[in-house]
Protein 1
Amino acid sequence: MKIIPIEGKNFLLEKYLLSTDLYLGLWSSTTSEFPRLDINLSSWSKVYEISFNEYSRKKVSKVNWIYNASLGAYENTEFSFLPQTQNWTNVRGYFITTSNDNTGDLFTLVAFDSAKTFLKGLVEAELVIVPRYTFV
């Protein structure tokens, strides 16, 4: 288990969350394996980032981070992904990166408990994500 010292966590918080706009995206994989992390973002996004119609990364603005004392975490606004013209299949999780293109750094990678399918046009199938970072 790796433990980041408090100074390191504070550095990450100040450097990325509170001073840089980040970008939220969805990833997929044909296997249940966690994505490789030993390749650059350009190669990684070509292999894992979904490419369905209407999909694009969402801007996670640095000015929208709010500290939620009851959770002991910083939260950003709610982001929605809703397919309109085709089903989105085999969505395995989401990621946050430092750029809207393939030149940035992968900041966070989260896996769902299983692959998800989001059906076109169904509000019930809307994927809602609230980015949250907890620093202890």
Protein 2
Amino acid sequence: MIDLLQAAQSALFAKLKALEGGPSLPAGWGAFQHIPQNREPPYSMVGMMTVENADMRGEQAELIKAELQHVYRGAGRGPLLDMMHAARAALENQALPSTVAAFEDPRFVQAEASDALADGVTYVGIQLFEFYAEPA
């Protein structure tokens, strides 16, 4: 038995990190596993993750659901939507890298993009993906 949730987080983070410097992303955008103290937006990270037992044969298999969280601060929500689109294009039906786990290609489930928060210039987006995983 292996920690499929940790492997999934690492694989999702690797896919996000590979987007850094992309032309469709806002200047200064970064991907993080843990947001550094005092880090200002824009950034994306792997957020809440859940796992369900999907064992049907007496072997480890899990359904993993993972949120991506995106934060942008600036005039208008467009750059947040660009961040969300780039993440979706990088993940939806794309192979996840791992040497310890075999992942089904992620399926996009849903997304939400906020209105401006109380400061009038901060926007938050959340995307949900799901995929099955088992040891490699």
